[in-house]
Amino acid sequence: MTVDIVDADLLRSVALFARVSDAHLRSLAASASLRQVPARIVLFAEGDRLDSLHVVVKGAVELYSEHSGRRFTVAVVRATRPLALASVLVQRNPLSARVLERSELLVVPAPSVAELLGRDPAFAGAVAQELAGECHEIIEDFRSHRLRTTTERVANWMLRCDESTGRTGRFVIPYDKRVLASYLGMAPEHLSRSFSALASAGVVVSGRRIMFSDRAALAMAAGIGGADVYCGTEGTAR
Q: Domains in the chain and their CATH numbers?
């Protein structure tokens, strides 16, 4: 793991800090660091006291929870988003975080972030907006897990992923299939069965590459009323 100095321009490029005043931004940059982190490193563990806020600048990080040998991926966070922003307010990590691929992470001491919340109204507004987005994404995922079958969940995820990559009907699963299965709330074998079931809707899966040509058929398989229904964005596995 290597650590680099952070300048104000880098902080400003992150939406969360884009509207922070110049004076506060310089102070924040002085306490922050930019870290190059290899894959498979665990950044923090669920339940640990919070030391720093991590923001993904490049790469991908899995947020997950484990209990009695079971594992659930809550989100896969990509650039440029913070990891579990709410943890700054509760001062404890609600989830564990693991780097999925070589990543560049902006690390800011949690006390500096908490202090800035009370001093910079623009930053407080950006935090509120980010938390609202995270809440919406979690509700959408929870609703999908409770109301959709496994095959419907996979089909809906495909539509969402295709939406975020240009609606070409061709994209690459951005992480390991086991992570995808965990995120969608199913065992890896159920994910494989769902891929097979979606072949009738024109879906072709080759390794991590997915192709489909009939959006209407895939929307029907997802339990959506029509092919042009907007399926949301992938924030976190999103």
A: 2-144 (2.60.120.10), 148-221 (1.10.10.10)
